[in-house]
Amino acid sequence: MTLGVDNRAASSRAVAWIRRVQVASVVTWGLLAAVVLVNAMVQPTFFTLYSITSTFATFVPLVFAAVAQAIVVIGGGLDLSIGTIVALSSVVALKVMNGSDALIGVGFLAALATGAACGLVNGLLTAVVRLQPLIVTFATASVFGGITLVVLPSPGGAVPPAMTQGFRLAFAGIPVPVWCVLVAVLIWLVLSRTKFLRHVYAVGGDAQAAYASLVPVVAVRILTFVTAGALAGLAAMGVLANTGSGDPFIGADVALDSIAAVVLGGIALRGGRGGAIGAIAGAIILALVTNVLFFLNVPTTFRELASGLVIIAALALSVLTTRKGVVR
User: Is domain 21-323 classified as CATH 2.40.128?
Assistant: First the structure.
């Protein structure tokens, strides 16, 4: 009898954990498995340590940007300025570090602070001034992009050697870029256990009901953008570690790619549902699709078209399976 009770309790805890983590839909994981398989077919060295390191190194910035976008979208918003926040955070960190290994830690703090400050601007305009997030972040994207060009008018600068070299190493047999992706997962898992994220889901699901339940809606919306900005700062450090130099135009496609990753991850754009684990899977799918197109020698002009078709297919499959009750 006691064993049965214990088993039921364990099952309940498992179900609660799954709901809290908010894993992606079956469609998302099916697409991920498919693109991994196709990559292995077109790239025989796909599973070698060197290839995994190189491939995951390209994942890192988009993975953190996708987690940032996921938090905003779950809270009922949308951030079109994520890409320029990444770019601004990267050039600020680049200037602060000035190629010195001793200043890497300061660079990380500068990137986080820059991203959080940009997020604070977005949060204040949307939550306090009560402007639409889409319009606000569209405008601030131009503002942040302009500041980025003031800080670094053209590509250049040197990233500390220890940072770029360390990004290509392996720790405990696992490449550092893979560890970075696992850190993104860990950040989400930690956040998912906090009252803050529960409030984010509540506000995204129904802001008026959340307010009636004494949820500090304004503060939650502000913190949502601040958190997303800080995560964009981490994405910026991933960009610097991977490229080895600064580029004020690096975030041009990040915003739309992060939204695409959120969609592929099964997160509802209306807010209140989904989880960043799915967004991380979506980011990896996008990167692997690009990898496949590269090895198939598909012209660059057709790569965006192919990526768009993948996203549309994922949306269609997700809607169909949801109607049939396969996805919850």
Answer: no
